[in-house]
Design a protein that fits this description.
Layout (H helix, E strand, L loop, with lengths): L7 E6 L5 H10 L4 E3 L5 E4 L4 E6 L4 H6 L5 E5 H11 L7 E6 L5 E8 L14 E4 L2 H10 L5 E4 L7 H4 L4 E6 L3 H5 L2 E10 L1 E6 L7 H19 L1
Parallel strand pairs: 1-4, 1-5, 8-9, 8-10
Antiparallel strand pairs: 2-3, 3-4, 5-12, 6-12, 7-10, 7-11
Bound molecules: phosphoribosyl ATP and zinc ion (ZN).
Length: about 220
């Protein structure tokens, strides 16, 4: 069992698309911090809620391991790692709230020249992605046998490099796909930033702190609508 703590630790992205909006949202919940010199850890001043600034990909693992209590991360990252971690046992964390920023889609995209006539067209093809678990699960669900080519970055150029026939990647405006002569044909997941937290309640004062944070968050999110 993770050690009892009397402060809540929230992981957010250190630098990237979600860092500024995540911090702004927590600030509008009345949180403030005293920054440490290395800026990796921010000590909560107005409430005992500290921040840990990390790579977004590390956030689900930090919550699973009990190093952090909550995290703000894209649903795409959370869902991919939930699938990778689920080996029959109960999930350690889940989505607590959708946060209404960082919207994007996990799409299948194919070369502009393809005349798309449905998922069956992917049979026997190579699909490059940074989301192999989500893509693999979707292919199984559709009963399509295709080769998943896992890439950690530069997925959009894989077809031009001859590494893959199609891709499965995040899309927001679609400009990157267009610049690489690709077109989106299917959406696997609609994503946005989410608050992730443990699947079971805390057994110490963190439970009340989390409830307080959620009440404030819900107030802020309602005001935004
Ligand atoms: O360093 P670290 O690992 O923390 O950051 P990162 O580079 O992995 O993540 P980052 O900051 O790029 O994205 C963080 C999260 O933002 C993602 O996990 C998504 O939940 C969300 N998000 C929202 C996006 C986009 N929109 C998006 N457009 N993440 C990536 N993109 C990519 C897209 O794949 C394309 O390559 O941005 C490019 C531009 O998109 P278009 O469609 O507007 O051209
Ligand atoms: Zn990342």
């Amino acid at each position: 069992l993770p050690a009892a703590r009397d402060r809540l630790r929230v992981a957010i992205q250190k630098s990237g698309r979600l860092s500024e909006p995540a911090r702004a949202l927590l600030t509008s919940c009345g949180l403030s911090w005293r920054e440490s010199r290395d800026r990796l850890f921010c000590y909560g001043e107005s409430l005992p809620v500290d921040l840990l600034l990390v790579r977004d990909d590390d956030i689900p693992g930090l919550i699973a391991d009990g190093v952090c209590d909550l995290g703000i991360v894209g649903r795409n990252v959370l869902a991919e790692q939930l699938l990778q971690r689920s080996n029959g046992g109960a999930d350690k964390y889940r989505e607590w709230r959708a946060l209404d920023f960082g919207a994007c889609r996990l799409d299948i995209a194919v070369p502009d020249g393809w005349e798309w006539d449905g998922p069956a067209q992917l049979r026997g093809k190579r699909i490059a992605t940074s989301y192999p678990a989500l893509l693999g699960a979707w292919l199984r669900e559709q009963a399509i046998e295709a080769e998943v080519v896992p890439l950690s970055g530069s997925v959009e150029i894989a077809p031009r490099l001859g590494q893959a026939d199609a891709i499965c990647d995040l899309v927001s405006s679609g400009a990157t796909l267009a610049a690489n002569q690709l077109k989106p044909v299917l959406t696997l997941l609609k994503s946005e930033a989410v608050l992730a937290g443990p699947a079971t309640p805390f057994s110490d004062v963190r439970e009340e702190l989390a409830a307080l944070l959620l009440r404030r968050l819900d107030g802020v999110l309602r005001l935004k609508d």
